[in-house]
Every structure is written in C-alpha cells, then in structure tokens.
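Q: Please design a sequence for this.
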C-alpha cells in the first residue's frame, strides 16, 4: 500500500499520541495533531485561538444547525453570521484533514478524523484505549496532580471527547463500529501496537 493514512482516536493516558509518533517516524511520513488548528486558521483566516472553543466543547452548549450540528462537509461563507460558529470551526478542520489525507501518507490524531475520512479506502481508523490503572500511571508521569485530581481529569477528558464526537458526527466515541481496529495498549507494548497497525496496512 503506497498511500495510506492512519487516524488514531485515543483515551488520555493510553499512549495513543506516542504510538502515532512512533508509526509516523518508522515510515517517514507526516504526523498531524494540534498543528491542524493552525492550518485551519491559515485556510479560513479565523484566529487560531477561536478553534480552542471547539476542543473545549461541553454538552451544555447548544448546536447551531437546527437540532444538531452534525458535520456535512459544507463551509459557511464569511458573510454569514455563523461563520465563527463552532460548527464552521470544525468544518474547516475537517477540510484540512481531508486535504492532508488526499495529499499523501500520514498519521492524524483525534479531531474525529475517523469519521471525516470514513469513505476513504486507504484510511485505517484506529482506537487506542487502556485499563484505568495504566492510564492513571501514564497521566501521573505528565501531570502534577493528586490521585483524586487525576481521576477527575481523566473522566472529564473522556466526557469531553464523547460530547465532541456526538455533537459533530452524531456517533458514539466508544462505538467500535466507527473504527477498523481497536487496541488495548495496557495489554500490549506500544511497539507491538504499532506492529499490529502495520499488519492491517499490509505493509
């Protein structure tokens, strides 16, 4: 497979980001994560700080497009009053993700890329999850928090990602049918997870 794209959705503390970096480095291909925000900002002309609103989405915020704000791929023009809406900020990120996937092989972390690229034949959609203790241990190595604070942080982050996915795709983040491969990184070393992904790419 000469042209391939791997999207990685992951729980915080599962090592999904590190796994994506390892995979990209092994194959000498681009790795995209939060830098997609700056690309979307450059493309739209919208201040990059505003894109943080989408990342911090909570279910308390009402959607703009009727009853739902589910992604359709349509961009709202600058003259429209909803040009700076959360939905349009998401749409511009989605536009960048599609363009990156079409440009060449790469690894894309998060941002519902699995849904945005669900109809692309050369895309492998991966979900990385892990046991609670494993996630707590990895999170404690990055964050200076008490055990109680870490527990609250992980639960809040899971909910944020679930809300984000449901709002913009209408799908459940944890739904295995939205992915081609689900891996428990607490059962396998990250290196083994990378090899498993590669085996599904038929490299």
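A: Design:
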């Amino acid at each position: 497979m000469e042209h391939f794209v791997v999207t990685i959705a992951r729980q915080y503390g599962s090592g999904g980001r590190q796994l994506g970096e390892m995979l990209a480095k092994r194959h000498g291909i681009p790795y995209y994560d939060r830098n997609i925000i700056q690309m979307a900002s450059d493309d739209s002309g919208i201040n990059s700080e505003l894109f943080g609103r989408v990342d911090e989405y909570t279910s308390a915020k009402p959607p703009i497009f009727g009853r739902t704000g589910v992604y359709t791929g349509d961009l709202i023009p600058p003259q429209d009053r909803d040009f700076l809406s959360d939905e349009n900020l998401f749409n511009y990120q989605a536009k960048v993700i599609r363009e990156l996937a079409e440009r060449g092989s790469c690894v894309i972390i998060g941002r519902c890329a699995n849904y945005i690229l669900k109809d692309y034949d050369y895309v492998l959609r991966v979900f990385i999850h892990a046991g609670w203790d494993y996630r707590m241990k990895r999170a404690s190595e990055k964050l200076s928090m008490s055990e109680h604070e870490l527990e609250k942080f992980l639960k809040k982050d899971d909910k944020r990602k679930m809300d984000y996915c449901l709002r913009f795709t209408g799908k459940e983040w944890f739904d295995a049918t939205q992915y081609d491969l689900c891996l428990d990184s607490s059962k396998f070393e990250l290196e083994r997870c990378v090899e498993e992904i590669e085996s599904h790419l038929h490299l």
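Q: Thanks. Anything notable?
A: The domain at 5-197 is CATH 3.40.50.300 (Rossmann fold). The longest strand covers residues 123-129.
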